[in-house]
Amino acid sequence: MKRIAVFTSGGDSPGMNACIRAVVRTCVYYNLENFGIIRGYQGMIEGNFIPMKSSSVSNIIQYGGTILKSARSKEFFSPEGRKKAYRNLQHHEIDGLVAIGGDGTFRGASIFSKETGIPVIGIPGTIDNDLYGTDFTIGYDTAINTAVEAIDKIRNTADSHDRIFFVEVMGRDAGFIAMECGIGSGAEVIMVPETITTMQEVFDILKQGWNRQKTSSIIIVAEGDEEGNASMVASKVKEKFPHIDARVLVLGHIQRGGSPSAYDRVLASRLGLGAVEGLINGMTHKMVGIVNGKLTFTEFDECVSRKKEINQELLRITEILRV
Ligand code: F6P
């Protein structure tokens, strides 16, 4: 292994820069050459490679986003696209890849490494925390803190105006963000795709609150909840209780930005170093993660096919603490 390329792909997440820095600096430590690929798989197809040295990643650990930029490449789905990408890797004499991203990134990496034989190690970089094989993904901690900060502010105005706020958080089809920012902000209801929360349950929880003179409430809705998004849930509640003063807030991409938390920076540093050492030790087709505090490597296919479960204890906490 002489030359490694690193790229970020899919939705960006805070801590990706800290991770790129760790990959580049570990390569420098082991006397490996390093290239960054701009805009993920799309940049690989277009030949957008830049040489990286230690100073290329100076002063970036504290910044959100990704200096390598990110994209969701449609072209990479096709064998022709992947052939172009491989030709560019050969042209730059790359003999190992570090892919930072989420499940889509690893699906691509899995096919690509099987087709071409190029060694690839994945690093979980997504705010969704929905990857099997790691307790936490890079960016998740920052995203839930961003959401909690926003919800705290919403609670002030909800309280002043006796309103119910329906706050939609990201997570595609996973409820990790909703669950933890819901508990952290003391939300009355948390709706996640992993469990069924019926509208009747929502009505009952609201009524219980009113019975004890509660005048405002926060309902967190994960974007992939089975009852629909926050607007849909709000309409159903409004239909049942026309007297309520309801507002909908979609937190959206604000959750993907901002300076990474200390936790995300440390996680990114551990995983970046682990990925490069994994490649040096002859590993491929695996995602590096942290499980119970220890660095682990899990097959890409397992990471994307197995579902990471929501901690049942968190569900119980929600039910007990909202009364
Ligand atoms: O996977 C990260 C994520 O932020 C999801 O939570 C969300 O559903 C999706 O990306 C949004 O994607 P886009 O940036 O393409 O709108």
Please provide a written account of the structure.
By secondary structure, the chain is an alpha/beta fold. It folds into 2 domains: about 5-140 and about 260-305, Rossmann fold (3-Layer(aba) Sandwich); about 140-255, Rossmann fold. Helices cover about 45% and strands about 20% of the residues. The chain is built from 11 helices and 11 strands. It has helices at about 15-30, 40-45, 80-90, 105-115, 140-160, 175-185, 200-210, 230-240, 260-280, 300-305, 310-320, and strands spanning about 5-10, 35, 50, 95-100, 120-125, 165-170, 190, 215-220, 245-250, 285-290, 295-300. The protein has a 7-stranded mixed beta sheet, sandwiched between helices. The protein has a 4-stranded parallel beta sheet with strand order 7-8-6-9, with helices on both faces. The model has no long low-confidence stretch (mean pLDDT about 95). It binds 6-O-phosphono-beta-D-fructofuranose (F6P). 6-O-phosphono-beta-D-fructofuranose binds next to loops.
Kindly report the CATH topology of the largest domain. Rossmann fold
Q: Roughly what fraction of the amino acids lie in strands?
A: 15-25%
Listed once per kind, the bound small molecules are: 6-O-phosphono-beta-D-fructofuranose
| Count of DSSP strands | 11
The largest sheet has its strands arranged as 3-2-1-4-5-10-11
Overall residue-averaged pLDDT value: 97
The total domain count is 2
CATH C-level label of the largest domain = Alpha Beta
